Amino acid sequence: MSLDTAPLPPLDPLLRASTKRTRELFASSLDYPRDEERSAKIRLNVKIHDEYRDFKELPSALLAQQGQVGPVRPKQDRKMITAGASSETTKMIAALDKTPAPQPSTLASRSDLSQALALHKTTRTVKPTYHAPWKLVRVISGHLGWVRSVAVEPGNKWFVSGAGDRVIKVWDLASGELRLSLTGHISTVRGLAVSPRHPYLFSCGEDKMVKCWDLEVNKVIRHYHGHLSGVYSLSLHPTLDVLVTAGRDASARVWDMRTKAQIHVLAGHTATVADVKCQESDPQVITGSMDSTVRLWDLAAGKTMTTLTHHKKSVRALTVHPTEYTFASASAGGNNIKKWKCPEGAFVFNFSGQNAIINTMSVNAEGVLFSGGDNGSITMWDWDTGTAFQNMDDVPQPGSLEAEAGVFCSTFDMTGTRLITGCADKTIKIYAEQ
C-alpha cells in the first residue's frame, strides 16, 4: 500500500524568514556594538555601483549622434546650430565622466557633491543673444472675419491676407493701404503663398479648393482638385515647381504647379494635417498633425522618413529656420514648442513657458522665434537657447469681445524686422523691432 505524499516545501526561505524574525525580536536586547548606519551606506553604495557601472557612458551610436550637429545647408553664409553649452563646460563634463567608479568601501564626499552641483549650474546657465524688444506699430482693419493666413511677397513691397470672409486682400506693406481684393473662394481662406519664381499667388481654403492666381491679370488660372475636405495649409517648394497642400482629410498632397497633376498623396497621419512646410534639402516636406505627430517625408518616394512622437497634444504649427538646418513644432500644453535638427529629426530642446494652444510660429534669420497663442498670448524667443525674452498680449480692438484675442497666423517680412499677424478680432497687426 503506497501513500501519495506531497513534496516538502524548501527549507531555505523558511529558515531565512525565521532568522529575520528572531533578529528583529532579540537584537535590541543584545549588547554588541552596532555600526548600522555605516553598513547601510556601504550596502547602498555597492548596489548603486553594481547597477549603474555599465551605464556611465552612452553607447557609441548615441555618442556619435550627439557629437555631430547635422550638415550645413548648401550655402556658404549659413550658420551651424549651436548646442547651447560652451566648450569649457563640455570639457568639464568630459573630465567628470572619466572619474573611476566608486569602490564599495568608500563613500561619496561632500566636495564631490558640491562640484557636481556647481557643474550642473554652469551647464544650465547659457546666456541668450540679446534681441531688441518688439512693439505694435500698426493695426489694419478691413476683413469681416477671422484673419487665418498671411504671406509676404519676395520683393517686400506688399503682403496678402486671407480670412473667414472668403476674400483675399493685398495690402501695401509700407503704408498699410488696401491695394486689391480677390474673390473666388466660397469658404474661409486658410493658406496663402506667393511664389518667388513666378508671378503667382497660391491659396487654399475650407471649401476644398486650391487655387493659383496670376498676379499679372489678377485671375485664377489653375485649380488643383483632389482634397476630400477642407485644406488648412500650403507650402511652395523653394527650388522645384512643386506645391504641397495639407488638410482635414489627414493627408498632404504634392502637386505639379504647371500641369495640375497630383504627384503624391502623403498618407500616414490619422487626423487633420494642420501645417506643412517645404525646404530645399531633406526632409523636403515636414507635416504637423492633430494626431500629435510630426512626420518628415521623402519627397522622391512619397513615403515617411521619420515620425516624431514627442508631442502629447495636436501639433498645429511648424516653422523652419531660414538659414540653419533646424525647425520647430508647436502644440498645446507646457513644454509645447520643440526644436528639431535636420535631416534625421533629432530633438534639441523645449521652449518652455507659454502655457497655451499655439496656433502659429515664425522665425527670422536673426534667431527670433515668434509664437502666438489661442488665448492671445505672444512670446518672443531666442532660437539658439530657447529663452523667452519678451511676453505680450494681443489686445482686441474696441468693439471686439475679450475672447477675440487669439493669434491665428504670422509671418516675418523679407528683412526680418517686421512681423505681420492675423487675429481673431478681424485685424492684421504689424510689430516692428525697436
Automatic annotation (TrEMBL):
Location relative to the cell: Nucleus
Question: Which Pfam families does the UniProt entry name for this protein?
Answer: WD40
Q: Which domain of life is it from?
A: Eukaryota
Start-end of each WD repeat? 140-181, 182-223, 224-265, 266-307, 351-391
Task: Fetch the SUPFAM superfamilies from UniProt.
Answer: WD40 repeat-like
* Record keywords: mRNA processing, mRNA splicing, Nucleus, Repeat, Spliceosome, WD repeat
Q: Which coarse location class describes where this protein primarily resides?
A: nucleus
By its UniProt entry, which InterPro entries does this protein fall under?
Answer: Prp46/PLRG1-like (IPR045241), WD40/YVTN_repeat-like_dom_sf (IPR015943), WD40_PAC1 (IPR020472), WD40_repeat_CS (IPR019775), WD40_repeat_dom_sf (IPR036322), WD40_rpt (IPR001680)
- Function description: Involved in pre-mRNA splicing and required for cell cycle progression at G2/M.
- Assembly description: Associated with the spliceosome.
Protein family: Belongs to the WD repeat PRL1/PRL2 family.
Q: What is this protein called?
A: Pre-mRNA-splicing factor PRP46
The species this protein was found in: Rickenella mellea
